[in-house]
Every structure is written in structure tokens, then in C-alpha cells.
Design brief:
This protein has about 210 residues and is of the alpha+beta class. The chain is about 25% helix and about 30% strand. The chain has one domain.
Length: about 210
């Protein structure tokens, strides 16, 4: 099958990834419920997005977005794992800037249609029931503070090699060659799973209970 754009190929491949990012296990730092927010199984469907508090227009829409809901109904939060495919260095710099450390707060917003929709094509459970932080079917979007951010950037081969030789990633950044990211069944690749496993707060501790 041919794809008209790199974005279309990336989205198609990411739809094959599970609700929990492959390689991330359960731990004291990841006890909550993981859900894949982007891409949705139905193209054009409602999906979560990231924004600054009070902003009505500027939104961050990663190519891939997973949300780990945690906390309680009174004090909920979300940890996120994002994937960005970068077709050029300029594109990478733009996307990196959106996730750069900042003193500003970041919100993950989950629209009502996404929350009340089925978890997957094989699981009819409404997503809101899987979050663990909602006690009743929502009637308003759910906006949660983002506690932790991890981002995987997929780069074209020449850009990847250039960064590998000279770049020091920030603590929340992870890089992979584009051909690894868009390969069929990449979620089963041992190298990809090992890298994703390190993309969590638990990786900073000697042992995880």
C-alpha cells in the first residue's frame, strides 16, 4: 500500500500500537491506566490534545499520544508519552520547542466524544471508565495537568546520524531512525520496546516495585 505523505504512513503504523506504549510495564510510577489518544482508530475522530491554560487556539497535536491517567477524582493528573515524526531538521526544532522545559503549566484536554467512545474496536468499554479518575459519564471535556512528559522523535537517517554524533538529548527526549519508526509491527521490535521502556520516570530508579 502506498501513502501520499509521511504523516499518513506514521498515523497508519501508530494505529497498530496498543493502548499501553510497548515496553512500559507497571510500576509505582506507572500504576494508572494507559490509553492511546492519537491517532484514533477512525480518521478524523475526536482526540485529546495539549495546550497551555487559558489558550483557545494554540494546540499541540503530536503524531502519537498516550496518556497515563493517575491520581484521584479530587486530584487527577496525566503522564504523557508522545511520538513525533520529523521530516526535516526545521520540523524537528519546531516540535522540540513545543515540549521544551518551561515554567508554564501544560494541560491535556480530552474531548467528551473521545471519553465516551469505545476503548478500541475490540473493547466496547467507554474510555472514561478506564481512566480511573471519573466517577460518571462526562458532559464536559476533561482537562488534566500534565505531570510527566516523554517524547520520542523519529528522524530521517542523515538527520539521525548527525544528532547521534553531536547532540545531547534533554532528559525527556528519545530519538529513533525514521525507518525503524515506520516499519510494520515496529511495536514488536525489541530495540523499540527497550527504548520506550526507558522513556518513563521508573527508569531513573534502581528498582521498581
Amino acid at each position: 500500500m502506498e501513502y501520499r505523505t509521511l504523516d499518513a504512513l506514521v498515523r497508519t503504523r501508530l494505529r497498530g500500537w496498543p493502548q499501553r506504549p510497548p515496553g512500559i510495564g507497571r510500576s509505582m510510577h506507572n500504576p494508572g491506566s494507559w490509553l492511546r489518544g492519537r491517532p484514533t482508530e477512525i480518521a478524523g475522530g475526536a482526540h485529546p490534545f495539549l495546550k497551555l491554560p487559558g489558550s483557545q487556539r494554540l494546540r499541540t497535536l503530536p503524531d502519537g499520544l498516550w496518556l497515563n491517567f493517575g491520581g484521584t477524582a479530587q486530584e487527577p493528573y496525566v503522564d504523557i508519552f508522545a511520538i513525533e515524526a520529523c521530516g526535516s531538521l526545521a520540523n524537528m526544532l519546531d516540535k522540540r520547542a513545543r515540549f521544551a522545559p518551561s515554567t508554564n503549566s501544560l494541560l491535556a484536554v480530552c474531548p467528551v466524544p473521545w471519553l465516551i467512545g469505545p476503548t478500541s474496536s475490540t473493547d466496547p468499554t467507554p474510555r472514561w471508565r478506564c481512566t480511573g479518575v471519573l466517577r460518571a459519564e462526562p458532559t464536559h471535556p476533561l482537562a488534566l495537568p500534565v505531570r510527566d512528559i516523554r517524547v520520542m522523535y523519529a528522524l530521517k537517517a542523515r538527520h539521525y546520524v548527525g544528532l547521534l554524533r553531536s547532540h545531547i538529548p534533554l532528559p525527556h527526549e528519545y530519538f529513533v531512525p525514521m525507518d525503524k519508526r515506520v516499519a510494520k509491527d515496529a511495536q514488536d521490535d525489541p530495540q523499540i520496546r527497550e527504548l520506550v521502556a526507558r522513556a518513563s520516570a521508573a527508569a531513573h530508579f534502581l528498582t521498581c516495585v
